[in-house]
Amino acid sequence: MNPRYLLSIVVFFYFANASFAQQGELVARGHRRTTGTEDAKSSIYSVSQFIGRWQEVKRTNAGKKNIAFTDTTLLHFNDDKTVETRNTADDKMTMHMVEKATIDEDNSLSTGAEDYTIVSVSKDAMALQGEDEVVHYFKRSGVFAYELAEKYVPAKNNTTPEPELGKISLTKIMGHWTVYKRQAKPGFVTPALTVIKYLELTQKVDKNTASGMVTIYKSTVSEQVPCTVTIDGTNIKIVTSEVSFDLPVAVADGQEFDFGTTDLMYFCKQL
Question: How far is it, in rounded angstroms, from Cα 101 to Cα 208?
């Protein structure tokens, strides 16, 4: 073979191999960059999803069974991504803290006061799991009960409102109600008395009856239990497996829901 041709073939294969090696390196580098991007983790949640007020309404254990609790957690996420944590017990504030809210890549939410794992969040409800595996359920609230209580101004004569005339509308008592004020005669409320904290009516049974959940409080324990509520003239009957109430209604206009007696009166607002 002509030496010139032989030399040309050798040169051709030399540069071809160098080109393939360079392309392989670029592909490998590109693959490493792609893999790095694919492996990067980020949370599917953002603090902006939580902005607003959230009031705890239920707790469950690791077995998903309802558990009683003696305090209530209130979370208020602000536009500047800070979160105010308040705890109340027996309508008294026991803790108030303001910290920066952060969400990590493993969907853990830190409020400064507690570290949670986000279980779910929607427009009006969220579930957060604590480090003790207890799941805390929250409802979005337009205003907290303690804020309503601060604005409440009792009548000058401090008397219980008289019931409105006419039939009570079941439609106007449906929804999520929080007791923002209780007015009781001195000494009437004792640790042995069961009182109402929240009333959640979500399902109409018939024209006079609805079902839902009621949060009751006795001694130092709060508990959320199923209930039925029946309109009986100007009274409402709240029935659970543990306790029942039969109370006259003073106001039921869809925004305010007040019921009770001169011994103990409940003032409620929609959550």
Answer: 44
